[in-house]
Amino acid sequence: MDMPPTRYRVVEQGRRLVVIDNWTGQPVQYSAGTPQPPRNDLGAAPRSTIEQASATLRAHATTHKPQRTTNAGLGGADWIITTQSWFDDEGPRRLRISPGGQGGLTMTIGILAALAIAAIFFLGWLLIPATLFVLLQSGPRKMIRAAITGWLTGLGEEV
Q1: What is the rounded distance in angstroms from the CA atom of residue 159 to the CA atom of residue 151?
Q2: Is the pTM of this model over 0.85?
Q3: For residue 73, what pLDDT is reported?
Q4: How far apart are the C-alpha atoms of 90 and 152, rounded to whole Å?
Q5: Which tens digits make up the pLDDT trace of 117-144?
Q6: 48 by DSSP, 3-state: which?
Q7: Distance between CA atoms of 89 and 149, rounded to whole angstroms?
Q8: Which of 151, 77, 146 lies closest to 109, judged by CA?
């Protein structure tokens, strides 16, 4: 059994959505009990909230000038990182990474991430227990921490 046809349908007329009564074929008339959309002083309906937001953003973009800071994070002139004692023998400390060190840090993080993904993908079940075994031993862990500390010290200066 099919459902009966609906009484109302929504159509677009002049880039506006209009509710049409299928029984009369006319647009629905708002009664006193039905809230009407608000009108502005000129009699036209106000802009939608999306249009208002985009107009506000456009106005703000033309008047607002961003301020340059020296501590701009990962994209500014100075990168400042805070090390921790679990991977840095001299940590916790704050380091200002020099512009030459920024490229080295980015490259090293990218290479390590790619190697970790490839190792997990190809050798996952074999590599994870072996890595944990090596990292849980105090001798290799101290050597790795000393190497990381020397590498971080070479990247920049302490703040």
Answers
A1: 16
A2: no
A3: 47
A4: 10
A5: 888 888 777 777 888 888 888 888 899 8
A6: coil
A7: 6
A8: 151
- Buried b / exposed e over 37-67, threshold 16 CB at 10 Å, is eeeeeeeeeeeeeeeeeeeeeeeeeeeeeee
Task: Write the single-letter amino acid at 65.
Answer: K
Cis peptide before 66 (omega within 30 of 0): no
At residue 72, the pLDDT reads: 45
Residue 64 one-letter amino acid: H
CA atoms of 79 and 99, how far apart (whole Å) = 8
Q: Could you tell me if 139 and 78 are in contact, meaning their C-beta atoms sit under 8 angstroms apart?
A: no
For residues 87 and 145, the answer to whether their CB atoms sit within 8 Å is yes
pLDDT tens-digit profile of 73-124?
Answer: 444 567 888 999 888 988 889 999 888 888 888 999 999 999 988 888 887 7
Nearest to 104 by CA among 158, 153, 159: 153
Angle at 15 between CA 11 and CA 19, to 5 degrees: 30
For residue 95, give the amino acid letter. L
